[in-house]
Amino acid sequence: MEMLLSGNEAFARGVFEHGGEFASAYPGTPSTEILETIARHFKADIYAEWSINEKVALEVAVGASWGGARAIAAMKHVGVNVAADPLMTLSYTGVGAGLILVSADDPSLHSSQNEQDNRFYGKFASIPVLEPADSQESLDMVKDAFEISEKFDTPVLFRMTTRISHSKGLVKIGERRTVEHAGFERNIAKYVMVPSNAMVRHKLVIERLEALKKFAETTTLNMVEWGDKKVGIISGSVAYQYAKEIMPGASFLKLGLGFPLPMNKIMDFASKVDRIIVVEELEPFYEEQILAAGIPCEGKKYFSNFLELNVERVREGFIEAGVLAADTAQKKQTHESVLPRPPVLCPGCPHRGVMMAIRKLGVFVTGDIGCYTLAALPPLETIDTCLCMGASVNHAFGIEKAKKTKKKTVAIIGDSTFLHSGITGLANVVYNRGTQLTIIVDNRITAMTGGQDHPGTSKTLMGDATHAIDLVQLVKALGVEHVRTIDPFDQKETFAVLKEEIEREAPSVVITTKPCVLFPSKLKPTTKFHVVLEKCTACGACFRIGCPAITTSSEKNEKGRAKSQIDFELCTGCTLCAQVCPEEAIQEIKKA
Amino acid sequence: MKDGTTNVLIVGVGGQGVLLASEILCEVAKTMGLDTKKSEVHGMSQRGGVVTSHVRFGKKVHSPLIEEGAADVILAFEVAEGLRWVHYLRSGGTIIVNEQKIIPPITTTGKFSYPEKVEDTIKARVPKTTVIDAYEIGKKLGNTRLVNTILLGVLSNDLDLEESKWLQVIERMAPKGTGEINKKAFIEGRAAK
């Protein structure tokens, strides 16, 4: 039977078919749907959880693997940075049952803060990297990954990208087959990484890599497709599909095992073609290794490491390389310049009220990873930094201790991000005698990635009721004495509380209390507002709150400036625009 | 439809149902026994951003993305989005534009304005332009949520896929209890062009 599946769905299906029993992740685009699919369709056979962060996700999966269950941990590329601590030494200990670490990279930064190429983690940790090139391979390679993991006693890095994770294709599906493994067994030399043991294990890692190199030469994951011998193309992942689309008649060496490379196979391939061109997305990962092995090849010269590849970029590269006639290119059509549609905070978003109040307080704001970072864009423009998960708390602290900045600095962090890696920073603020205000915009969900539960929502990924962490109690336990909660839709109160806490010469935390408007379910408005045009003076105050429901109307004031209007369908009745309107022109729609 | 692969680019704004429409199209192609791929980027789309879905089907499809200048048909759920992506159309290709305009909040900053006479600009570039008011048709059918299916009906005229397969897939994928009305919407759209 064939199904139309995304790479993420196909991978999840693969974990089911190939005997996976444990799956963990912290949500992150483009990886999120892997765990959602497992929890939705396979929870009878596979335990699935949202872990509190990626380090925990990998470590619990390691425990499951040592405990005898085939396990996977999934995360976005930057999540692997968080999990890098266990990963690097996990390479030494090896696994119990098969263990896969999924890294979903995001070339072109569709929803990320960078476009790092995580294949380097494979080389860094001396572990094999598998690179599926479509949905079918995303399913099939789960089998290879588990088998390689168990045969070579190594975690396997399963490297996907946005185009693999989120593209759909036809996938042949099969039945579930399980593999028997014993539970945890004491093996101090293998599992206790004190220097004397780790030293021995490192030697084994070096030997393992040699064995993997031999395996790379013979595995069917790396396939030669002979065609015209004028050019030999070495490629993997989605870049292979683009190259194949444009040069279907060329000779290909398609790499499914992206690390370690099959150097003898590559040398043999190179000896039979006139020249080698490497087509890979992001960094020259294959290219540099092939060159280092003394095999001449070209790659990044024609296909830049900036942003994701696509058919037109690969075609241009081949034309530049002189292996494709220039007249094969599609005639370039002019691009029309159309106004941008930057993502915005939703109508009724509880973050908006905080940003509006903050803007009036004249402070710097260190931001974090979440929807609230959208407030960095016009018209709100209230976020001054965004680096990585949990960093906001620490940046504010550092700026304060540097003592060069006159304005106060406030940290803003979401509930899921605070639990992920903000707690330690706040403990550090208290311990090291910082005085900053940290605002936790608690909307009771992981919103940016599409509404996932976390340890504060009282529900697990598998749908079970569970304890919800009480943020007020947690923060107090860290030693923050001044903890207050606010309703961000009450501008007067929000402004007053924030002002007081910013001025306080002691660490303080303000926590918002209103849920996300979209998740877990779309909030139903109980009232709606409209603009009374006779009263509106087109002052623009409501425009500056950045609500998608408020747009320009065709009515103008005497200076020709457009008055505002509120989209009835989009309005959630949050009242924020009415609170900023100096003319009381925004009024509740009276029910007939 | 070079090499027997058909390229359909569906564009719109987050929340309009672009992704569901492309899903249905892929399922129809699959039901016809064709290889099919589609690609889109999730994530920010929910928040009023631009949404595109590349759909490709034929004997064997490699790239999940359509090459610029190679789309056989563009289906635009929103007028300005049709204009934004018109360079993806191959010469001789067709663009179908739904008359709906979604004005982004960025226009209130005064720095950007929604383009004027968009349909005319598109028509001047593309001889085969179909402008359709799917919202109006939906209203006549008594449900403006049918815009999706109506537009797929219009699109179906430009694709070599059997009507019976379309109806079969729409019936299967429509929300519970809305199979009949969605099939009717599809037929209305198919007749509207």
Task: Explain what this protein looks like in three dimensions.
The complex is a heterodimer of chains A (592) and B (193). With 592 residues, chain A is an alpha/beta fold. Chain A is 36% helix and 18% strand. Chain A contains 20 helices and 22 strands. The N and C termini of chain A lie far apart (56 Å). Chain B has one domain: 3-Layer(aba) Sandwich (Pyruvate-ferredoxin Oxidoreductase, domain 3). In chain B, α4 packs across α5, α4 packs across α7 and α5 crosses α7. In chain B, α2 links the parallel β4 and β5. Classes of the chains: A alpha/beta (592), B alpha/beta (193). At the A-B interface, α8, β8, α11, α14 and β20 of A face α1, β2, α2 and β5 of B. β8 of chain A pairs antiparallel with β2 of chain B.
Q: What oligomeric state best describes the polypeptide chains here?
A: heterodimer
Instruction: Specify the helix fraction band of chain B.
Output: 25-40%
Would you tell me which CATH topology of chain B applies? Pyruvate-ferredoxin Oxidoreductase, domain 3
Highest-level CATH class of the largest domain in chain A: Alpha Beta
Mean pLDDT of chain A: 97
What is the helix tally of chain A? 20
Structural class by helix and strand composition of chain B: alpha/beta
Q: How many DSSP helices of chain B?
A: 7
Shape summary of chain A: globular
Number of domains of chain B: 1
Largest sheet of chain A: 7 strands, mixed
Secondary-structure element series of chain B: EHEEEHEHEHHHH
First-last Cα distance of chain A: 56 Å
Task: Indicate the topology.
The complex is a heterodimer of chains A (592) and B (193).
Chain A: E1 2-6, H1 7-17, E2 22-25, H2 33-41, E3 47-50, H3 54-66, E4 71-76, H4 77-82, H5 84-93, E5 99-105, H6 119-125, E6 129-130, H7 135-152, E7 156-161, H8 162-166, E8 167-172, H9 188-191, H10 195-218, E9 222-225, E10 228-236, H11 237-246, E11 250-255, E12 257-259, H12 263-271, E13 275-279, H13 285-292, H14 311-321, H15 350-361, E14 364-366, H16 391-402, E15 409-414, H17 415-431, E16 437-441, H18 471-477, E17 482-486, H19 491-503, E18 508-512, E19 529-531, E20 550-556, E21 562-566, H20 576-580, E22 586-588
Chain B: E1 6-13, H1 18-31, E2 35-40, E3 50-58, E4 71-76, H2 79-84, E5 89-98, H3 118-125, E6 129-132, H4 134-141, H5 147-156, H6 163-173, H7 179-192
Parallel strand pairs in B: 1-4, 4-5, 5-6
Antiparallel strand pairs in B: 1-3, 2-3
Helix pairs in contact in B: 1-6, 4-5, 4-7, 5-7, 6-7
